[in-house]
């Protein structure tokens, strides 16, 4: 399983999704003081999740 790391800002495209407030708070706390946006964090988390799904197949 790949270890999650806080990413730097990649090129992105806007996409609107809704998050529970508690998840937003936790992500914002995790990226505080880092060179990372909320979107970049979520994108990295989704990439890791997709890799984990592929590894399980």
Report on the structure:
There is one protein chain. 53% of the residues lie in helices and 0% in strands. It starts with 20 loop residues before the first helix and ends with a helix. It has helices spanning 21-31, 38-56. The model has no long low-confidence stretch (mean pLDDT 89). By secondary structure, it is an all-alpha fold.
Structural class: mainly alpha
Point out poorly predicted stretches: none
Residues in helices, as a percent range: 40-55%
- The gross shape turns out to be globular
What's the N-to-C terminus distance? 13 Å
Please count the beta strands (DSSP E, at least 2 residues each): 0
Number of helices: 2
Strand content: under 5%
Query: Mean pLDDT, nearest integer?
Result: 89
Largest sheet: none
Oligomer: single chain
Q: What is Rg?
A: 12 Å
Which H/E pattern describes the elements? HH
Key traits:
57 residues; mainly alpha; 2 helices; 0% strand
How are the SSEs ordered, and which strands pair?
Blueprint lengths: L20 H11 L6 H19 L1
What is the structure about, briefly put?
The protein is mostly helical.
